[in-house]
């Protein structure tokens, strides 16, 4: 009996060891399983996070594509595979209508060859320009001027063409309008030129034809005086002189009017001018030809160089000098000084005389046409000289003004900007 | 020709200007024989025999006083014809005009005018101008025969 008792206890011990072993195995397996679960959970969390990021990313890009101002189109195997909402709208279709259709359907017939060729080149991997203008076709047949920006992408595992289409129809229409406006302006310019030319020759003909009878009036009254000098009494001579003078005055007036009208209409032709040369020539002409008997003290200070219209500048100096000469007629020793001052952005010229001067009260009237301040018979004039000077100086963006005192003389100033107009 | 040779050809369409010119010349004792042509065609006819001919008909005048604004054939055209014809181009031409247009001045010199003078309205000045022209072209200036 003890033998079986020993067997039983040995068996019991063996079983207990087995149980302990199984229990340990189980524990190990449980632990392993727990670890696996944790691993799976971690993977699952990662997956969830990645999925979320992907979703966010997709949403972000979808927003961009959906709300983009430009049309976005994906073309693959020559067919439209994707369009964003705006693309469909721009072309006048619904999204469903365009998917799967050959893309050339949406291109203007004249542009099809060019675009087809570019597409082929791009797909073949050749280096070509990826941004260019073309013309596309709306559903209703109208033209859409577009700027394309293209590039290759991988779409669903295959090469595809990603195209951004910018509608530039408005811009093109504006360009066309601008071109038309420019042409209209050019036409109008030409017309104005012609009108100006007509005015020019009209003014010229008028002045030319008006002078001829004046020569007759002046000439023949002078001839009368010369021929019948001894038979003519003082009164007759006086009247004949008046006739002559009248004709001369009118001749001068015609010249002045012509000069005045020219100064308004002409374009300035800029050139570098040596001012002293002009002034000295005028003084010389006056001394030698016009009034060789008068003794005037001309003082010409350095006058420098200036950029202006030569003929117009001559008119300015001619008028101002003539005035100075005229209004110093009474002076025993007439003195006329011409000079210049270089200022920061302009040159200032002055002509100063010691003649009869003027009342500063009227300094603004001086430059108005036909406004005469001196009604004295001695100072004949047409009243346009200074107005012409003012016009010309204004045209050159300069200023003109005068200072004077009755019986003490006058100084006339004018400025010319120092801008460069002439190419050196 | 038996008569004294014409030395001054005055081309002037205006009768007043013509008469005043004659008086001015007389006042200056310029007694050279003068021929008057009243328009461009007459001037060319006088010089060349017809408006189209190129051969010189008359003996050269010593000086031609030429107005620019002429009927039929314009003064500048007359100037051009005189100065481009190898036979006549040595004849001095003095343009005596009331034009102060820059383009007339420029074109005249381009065509080879000898002098360009603007007619003054004042008769005394005009007489002085004529005196100087006469003095220069009829006395001072030497020309080949």
Protein described:
The complex is a heterodimer of chains A (424) and B (145). Chain A is α+β, with helices and mostly antiparallel strands and 424 residues long. Chain A is 54% helix and 21% strand. Chain A has helices at residues 2-67, 85-91, 95-98, 109-123, 169-227, 234-265, 275-290, 310-327, 385-395, and strands spanning 71-76, 79-83, 131-137, 143-155, 158-167, 270-274, 296-300, 305-309, 334-342, 346-353, 400-405, 409-417. A five-stranded antiparallel β-sheet of chain A has the order 2-1-5-4-3. In chain A, strand 4 and strand 5 form a beta hairpin. By secondary structure, chain B is α/β, with parallel strands linked by helices. Chain B contains five helices and five strands, in the order βαβαβαβαβα. The model of chain B has no long low-confidence stretch (mean pLDDT 85). The chains are: A alpha+beta (424), B alpha/beta (145). Chains A and B meet through helix 5 and helix 6 of A and helix 1 and helix 5 of B.
In short:
The complex is a heterodimer of chains A (424) and B (145). With 424 residues, chain A is of the alpha+beta class.
Features of the shown structure:
heterodimer; A: 9 helices; 12 strands; B: 145 residues; alpha/beta; 5 helices; 5 strands; 41% helix
Uncertain parts of chain A? none
Terminal Cα span of chain B: 17 Å
Order of helices and strands of chain A: HEEHHHEEEHHEHEEHEEHEE
Number of helices of chain A: 9
Question: Strand pairing plus helix content of chain B: what structural class?
Answer: alpha/beta
Largest sheet of chain B: 5 strands, parallel
| Integer-rounded radius of gyration of chain B | 14 Å
Spatial strand order of the main sheet of chain B: 2-1-3-4-5
What is the C-alpha radius of gyration of chain A, as a whole number of Å?
50 Å
Largest chain-chain contact? A-B, 21 and 18 residues
Which bin fits the share of residues in helices of chain A? 40-55%
């Amino acid at each position: 009996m003890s033998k079986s008792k020993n067997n039983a206890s040995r068996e019991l011990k063996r079983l207990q060891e087995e149980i302990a072993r199984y229990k340990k195995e189980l524990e190990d397996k449980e632990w392993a399983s727990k670890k696996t679960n944790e691993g799976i959970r971690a993977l699952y969390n990662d997956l969830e996070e990645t999925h979320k990021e992907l979703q966010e990313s997709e949403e972000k890009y979808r927003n961009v594509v959906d709300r983009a101002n430009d049309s976005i189109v994906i073309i693959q195997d020559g067919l439209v595979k994707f369009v964003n909402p705006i693309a469909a709208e721009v072309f006048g279709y619904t999204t469903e209508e365009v998917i799967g259709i050959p893309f050339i359907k949406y291109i203007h017939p004249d542009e099809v060859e060019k675009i087809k060729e570019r597409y082929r080149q791009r797909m073949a991997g050749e280096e070509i320009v990826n941004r260019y203008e073309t013309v596309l076709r709306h559903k209703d047949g109208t033209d859409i001027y577009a700027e394309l920006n293209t590039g290759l992408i991988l779409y669903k595992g295959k090469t595809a063409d990603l195209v951004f289409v910018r509608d530039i129809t408005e811009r093109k229409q504006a360009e066309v309008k601008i071109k038309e406006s420019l042409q209209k302006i050019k036409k109008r310019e030409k017309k104005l030129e012609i009108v100006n030319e007509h005015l020019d020759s009209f003014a010229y003909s008028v002045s030319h034809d008006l002078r001829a009878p004046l020569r007759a009036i002046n000439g023949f009254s002078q001839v009368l005086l010369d021929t019948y000098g001894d038979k003519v009494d003082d009164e007759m001579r006086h009247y004949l002189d008046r006739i002559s003078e009248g004709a001369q005055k009118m001749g001068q007036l015609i010249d002045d009017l012509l000069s005045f009208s020219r100064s308004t209409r002409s374009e300035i032709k800029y050139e570098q001018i040596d001012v002293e040369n002009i002034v000295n020539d005028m003084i010389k002409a006056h001394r030698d030809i016009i009034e060789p008997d008068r003794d005037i003290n001309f003082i010409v200070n350095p006058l420098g160089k200036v950029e202006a219209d030569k003929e117009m500048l001559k008119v300015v100096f001619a008028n101002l000098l003539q005035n100075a000469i005229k209004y110093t007629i009474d002076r025993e020793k007439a003195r006329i000084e011409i000079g210049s001052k270089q200022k920061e952005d302009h040159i200032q010229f002055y002509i100063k005389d010691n003649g009869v001067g003027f009342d500063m009260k009227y300094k603004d009237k001086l430059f108005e046409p036909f406004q005469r301040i001196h009604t004295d018979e001695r100072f004949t004039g047409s009243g346009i000289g200074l107005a012409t000077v003012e016009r010309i100086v204004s045209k050159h963006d300069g200023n003109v003004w005068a200072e004077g005192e009755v019986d003490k003389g006058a100084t006339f100033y004018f400025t010319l900007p120092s801008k460069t107009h002439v190419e050196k | 020709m038996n008569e004294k040779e014409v030395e001054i050809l005055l081309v002037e369409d205006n009768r007043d200007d013509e008469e005043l010119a004659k008086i001015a010349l007389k006042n200056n004792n310029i007694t050279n024989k003068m021929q008057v042509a009243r328009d461009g065609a007459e001037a060319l006819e006088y010089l060349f025999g017809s408006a189209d001919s190129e051969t010189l008909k008359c003996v050269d005048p010593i000086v031609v006083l030429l107005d620019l604004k002429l009927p039929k054939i314009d003064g500048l055209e007359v100037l051009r014809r005189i100065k481009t014809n190898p036979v006549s181009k040595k004849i001095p031409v003095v343009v005596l005009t009331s034009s102060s247009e820059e383009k007339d001045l420029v074109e005249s010199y381009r065509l080879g005018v000898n002098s360009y003078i603007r007619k003054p309205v004042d008769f005394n000045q005009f007489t002085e101008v004529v005196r100087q022209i006469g003095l220069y072209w009829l006395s001072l200036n030497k020309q080949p025969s």
